[in-house]
């Protein structure tokens, strides 16, 4: 037996993009993390407390941050640095402006900007300008500006 379809109510809200996979990172101090991510160009889509939480976006890249809850025996904070073994790549319009903003905000780079070319087919490479920085908890972010394609 099939259920009847229900029509949704008309809405005046503009549909917004929701990424189908959004990592949620545990952070020691949400305010400190937000300083880093704002310097990297992210905006806060929404924020709530208890626990401290923020949903961030930069273009179509989306990320959630949740502050550790003291005394949570079921989910204790990991020993730092966090994010060992993971590298979050975020495509940006202008990698050099992110470098300038991070430096201006006092955040050191993990790796200076470098141009890299990667094989995407047998005879084509895609280039990107890459810069790496760690957030206050040690998560590694690689901000990349796409440079285009070339024959290899």
Short description:
The chain is mainly beta. The protein contains two helices and eight strands; from the N terminus they run βαββββαβββ. It is elongated, with a radius of gyration of 19 Å.
Describe this structure in words.
The chain has 152 residues and is mainly beta. The chain has a single domain, classed as Roll (2,3-Dihydroxybiphenyl 1,2-Dioxygenase, domain 1), CATH 3.10.180.10. Helix content is 13%, strand content 41%. The strands form two sheets. Strands 1-4-3-2 form a four-stranded mixed sheet, covered by helices on one side. A hairpin with a 2-residue loop joins strand 3 (53-58) and strand 4 (61-67).
The figure for the number of domains is 1
Tell me, what's the shape?
A: elongated
Strand content is 35-45%
Question: What is the number of beta strands?
Answer: 8
Helix content percent band: 10-25%
- CATH architecture label: Roll
The low-pLDDT segments are 1-13
- SSE order in H/E notation? EHEEEEHEEE
Overall mean pLDDT score?
88
Taking all Cα atoms into account, the compactness measure Rg is 19 Å
Largest sheet: 4 strands, mixed
Number of helices: 2
Biggest β-sheet: strands ordered side by side in the sheet: 1-4-3-2
Looking at the structure, the CATH topology is: 2,3-Dihydroxybiphenyl 1,2-Dioxygenase, domain 1
Question: Which structural class matches the secondary elements?
Answer: mainly beta
Report how far the terminal alpha carbons are from each other. Answer: 58 Å
CATH superfamily annotation? 2,3-Dihydroxybiphenyl 1,2-Dioxygenase, domain 1
């Amino acid at each position: 037996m099939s259920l009847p379809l229900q029509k949704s109510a008309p809405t005046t809200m503009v549909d917004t993009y929701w990424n189908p996979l959004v990592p949620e990172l545990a952070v020691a101090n949400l305010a400190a993390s937000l300083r880093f991510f704002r310097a990297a160009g992210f905006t806060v889509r929404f924020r709530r407390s208890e626990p401290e939480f923020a949903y961030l976006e930069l273009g179509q890249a989306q990320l959630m941050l949740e502050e550790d809850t003291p005394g949570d025996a079921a989910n204790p904070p990991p020993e730092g640095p966090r994010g060992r073994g993971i590298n979050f790549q975020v495509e940006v319009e202008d990698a050099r402006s992110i470098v300038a903003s991070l430096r201006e905000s006092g955040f050191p780079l993990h790796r200076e900007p470098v141009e890299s070319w990667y094989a995407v087919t047998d005879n084509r490479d895609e280039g990107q300008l890459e810069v790496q920085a760690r957030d206050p908890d040690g998560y590694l972010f690689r901000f990349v500006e796409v440079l285009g394609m070339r024959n290899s």
